[in-house]
Amino acid sequence: MKTITRRLGPAQWDTWYREGRAVDRSVTDAEADRFLRHVSLSAGSSVLDVGCGLGSFSRQFFRWGHNVLELEISPAAVEIAQRRGTQERLRYGVHDFDASAVPTTLQSGSFDLNVCRNVLPFLDHQRFMVDARRRLRPGGQLYVLVRVWSERGGEPDDKPWQRGFTEEEVQDLQNGWAEQERCWLGRHTALFVSDERRRTD
Ligand SMILES: C[S@@+](CC[C@H](N)C(=O)[O-])C[C@H]1O[C@@H](n2cnc3c(N)ncnc32)[C@H](O)[C@@H]1O
Known about the structure:
methyltransferase activity, methyltransferase, SAM-dependent_MTases_sf, Diverse_substrate_MTase, Methyltransf_11, alpha/beta
């Protein structure tokens, strides 16, 4: 393991996606099961997938009838994801969530669900958590999947596209949310947070 000091820009991610590295984590049955237990979405909900990679998680929402916006820092990942299918309710775009300019597609209060799978350790996550809350509609949820390492800044030498948080950092993410649910998926933790009690309709 080594200490992380550098931010990874779009060119680095593009290289890994073009080389076909296993950057994008597939959705296991266990994750899908936990997700469906903790997230309630009514038909036609609006979902934002942050750092969507090749978009395998998001395409599932599309199949379930939701409106999905997938945003990524890597133009190569977006290009590959688009080749796998674009529809009116399934949109892709290039966006850096650390950038100061916020596109009009990310208006306040416009999403029922923010998905953030294995992305937060690459972002200014404190800023991200503030922005994510602002983007959610009342009752909206944020889903975070992140690998948990005992060591701060852990990153495997051979897989720099895998980063994690310490347990303490995960607990920081939970601060200030009215509703929080958490479960383990192997070495990953899944976190579901919301400012309001989940809708049951
Ligand atoms: C480990 S991959 C996870 C991909 C996907 N979310 C998944 O579940 O497998 C991290 C992703 O975050 C994207 N990413 C990293 N920094 C970003 C940023 N500042 N803004 C948007 N996306 C970013 C990378 O391009 C990459 O696709």
